[in-house]
Amino acid sequence: MQVAGSGFARDGDAFARGHGRAEFLGRTRLLKDVTDEGEHGLAPRRPEDSREKTAEQVESTKKVYRRSTAPQPREGLSVPAAPDTPVSATLGGAAGFDGISFHEQYEAGTGRYAGSQIRWEPPDPALAVGNGYVVHSVNCALTVYDTAGRPLTLPTALNQFYRQLPASRPGEERAWPHASGDMLADPKCYFDPVGERFLHSVLKIESPGPASRSARCYILLAVSATADPTGEWKLFSVDITSDGRHGTPPLAENACYSFHPLLGGNRDGIFLSLNLFENIEPAPPCKGAQLYAFGRRSLLEAEEGDAPRYAYLNTATVPTGDPDFPFWGWLQPAQSARPRGGRQFFLCAGPLNEKGIPRPLDNRLVVWSLTGTETLDGPEPRVTLDHRVLHTGPMGAPFIYGVTQKEGPTPLRDELGDGDPVQKLDGKAPWMTQVAEHDGLLFGAVNTLLAAPDRRPGGERLGIAYVVVSAAETSGGLEARVLRHGYLAVEGQHVFDPAIALNAAGRGAMTFTLSGPDHYPSAAFVRFERDGVRGPVHIAAAGAGPEDGFTGYSAFTGNGVPPGTSRWGDYTAAVTDADGAVWMANSYIPDAPRSRWANVGTHICRLPLPG
User: Fold this and answer.
1) 566: Cβ contacts below 8 Å, ≥ 6 apart
2) With a cut of 70, which residues of the chain have pLDDT below it?
3) How distant, in Å, are the alpha carbons of 76, 167, 268, 348 from that of 450?
4) 297: part of which helix (H) or strand (E)?
5) Secondary structure of residue 111 in the 3-state scheme
6) Alpha-carbon separation of residue 544 from 149, 402, 406, 601 (angstroms)
7) How many helices (H) does the chain have, and how many strands (E)?
8) DSSP conformational letter for 237
9) pLDDT digits 0-9 by tens, 552-572
10) What is the pLDDT, as a whole number, of residue 535?
11) pTM above 0.90, yes or no
12) N or C: which end of the chain has fewer CB within 10 A?
């Protein structure tokens, strides 16, 4: 799969800037009935391997890293204590419906894709809302609803939607990461309010998936051809393998892969941020965050034969000032109800070590500004990446923290008969997974370990740290400062995996998962405004039982989590609609038909707010 017209400029020992072009794969659509097989034929396969670069070698991306002094974490950090926020017995004005469940995504696929889905736990819900449509994706399926929750398409297997090889052969019963075909994962959705188009992105590791050290890795992008996401979509591919082949930058000797690509946009462009890892087991080395910036118009208006240009920036060349944690990662693009042009802001938490793991406790927050985005649609994009490292209150958690849940029926555990305990959920380290922008302010949140208000022994639980940051481009460069830093905790329970969205009036919500000794895994939220959390926690959808999926039991190994811990998810989603409402998508345990292998589902809710 050739990336046309790639060129990179060398900065020291690493490729720090460059440009490239995405490949147009064709057109596709979502399924509307069970007899529909979607697009016939698969996307063309890649060409024979070559380390030769293409003829276009001009340095078309003029990029400068303005380097600020990177402060070290303050000494003597301790787990912060936080007051408890009460849990309300009301829905707080929200109303919703169930999204795609594990059962539905596992059964998705028609024609040659029937019975080809691998077992994917967790769902990793993604969401975009606009023009009266709700576009919802999980790890290996995608569907569309109207705003009343009525399904307008079937849950469509992502491999079928993107016209890739089926993830497995029917009857193989394969589970992540052991795909025999193309493995797709970590979807994101974005509604572009400027061009009124929907975008969907997903990571692809080609057949036979991560098990092959030489498998190439791509970001696949889909753009709705019109404002109606139930119609045609245009498909694009970007090779991110970064081994010097097919015009990619030679950042590693072996093929590289990513996970959890992040998607966002402003008035000028569409932005993808991803963390790169060299495919060497058992501990893949981190290669830092990579940014891909597309001109919005050239991407959304591309047709057959076009190859939309992107600007590429490698933040591995940006020093952290911390030799034990040399890489920046998870640069989350800010999203705004009224996106501006000229620059794009990003937020990330503290730096990562050589394995891509952050400090268990840190107090650094990084604001990034990509300026010159108005040039992305021109013949010579000229963008500048600036950053500032700020101090906040302490925040952090172990790389995977075992979140407890209320005990209840566990039919899969009973069937296995192996005496496993009731699972814990994998609460992730403090990665920035969604950022809202409003009126010069950035709003972000991460998981953090919190002590009880009285710091009593055993009172620690997983909670949320949130920040409000002012950011502006001045004649002297980026200026940023922390205006507010706070915590959200619930007595004796855990809240984690936050996502924040604010409407044009500065009113919004933060969604997250609530679980603990008194609660099955539930979808919850709290109102959020410019000065932080407002009011009590509301449960949008109460869990109907404990998580009882295959990844948490000893009969199944190789899931990337400690024994007795289930994969729960890397993120939730919160977005705004034109009427000011905040929409949220979260994982929870529904009272609904389950698969033998797992019972997790998703919930989508709408919170009406003055816009």
Assistant:
1) 121, 122, 423, 424, 425, 426, 547, 549, 551, 552
2) 1-17, 38-75, 558
3) 16, 40, 40, 20
4) helix 296-300
5) helix
6) 20, 20, 10, 11
7) 4, 35
8) E
9) 998 887 677 888 999 998 899
10) 96
11) yes
12) C
What contacts 350, CB < 8 A, 6 or more positions away? 73, 325, 358, 359, 362, 363, 364, 365, 366, 396, 430
pLDDT of residue 85: 97
pLDDT in tens, 487-513: 999 999 999 999 999 999 999 999 999
* Cβ 444 vs Cβ 469: under 8 Å: yes
CB 119 within 8 A of CB 106: yes
Phi (first) and psi of residue 519, to 5 degrees: -140, 130
Sheet of strand 197-205: strand arrangement: 23-28, 233-239, 217-224, 197-205, 183-192
* Rounded distance between C-alpha atoms, residue 4 and residue 1, angstroms: 9
CA 523 – CA 508 distance, rounded (Å): 16
pLDDT at 46: 52
| Residue 40: per-residue pLDDT | 43
The reported pLDDT for the residue numbered 8 is 39
Pick from 207, 99, 199, 112: which is nearest to 157 by CA? 112
State the CB neighbour count (10 A cutoff) for residue 250: 14
User: What's the pLDDT at 475?
Assistant: 87
414: helix, strand or coil? helix
The residues near 221 (Cβ < 8 Å, ≥ 6 apart) are 22, 199, 200, 201, 235, 236, 237, 238, 272, 299
Tokens found for residue 463: 């909670």
> Do residues 252 and 241 lie in contact, with contact meaning Cβ atoms separated by under 8 Å?
no
Q: CA angle at residue 245 from 239 to 248, to 5 degrees?
A: 50
DSSP letters, 67-105, are: PPP-PPPPTT--PPB-PPPPBPSS-TT-EEEE---HHHH
Instruction: State the number of CA atoms in the 13 A half-sphere of 344 facing the CB.
Output: 32
Whose structure tokens read 């990844």?
551
Cα gap 271→516, rounded to integer Å: 36
Q: Which residue has the tokens 């019975």?
A: 115
Determine the pLDDT at residue 45: 53
Which structure tokens are listed for 243?
């081994």
Token digits for 244? 């010097």
Where does residue 610 rank: exposed (0-12), middle (13-18), buried (19+ CB within 10 A)? exposed
- Written as six digits, the tokens of 293 are 């910036």
pLDDT tens for 178-224 read 788 999 999 999 999 999 999 999 999 998 877 777 889 999 999 99
pLDDT at 70: 54
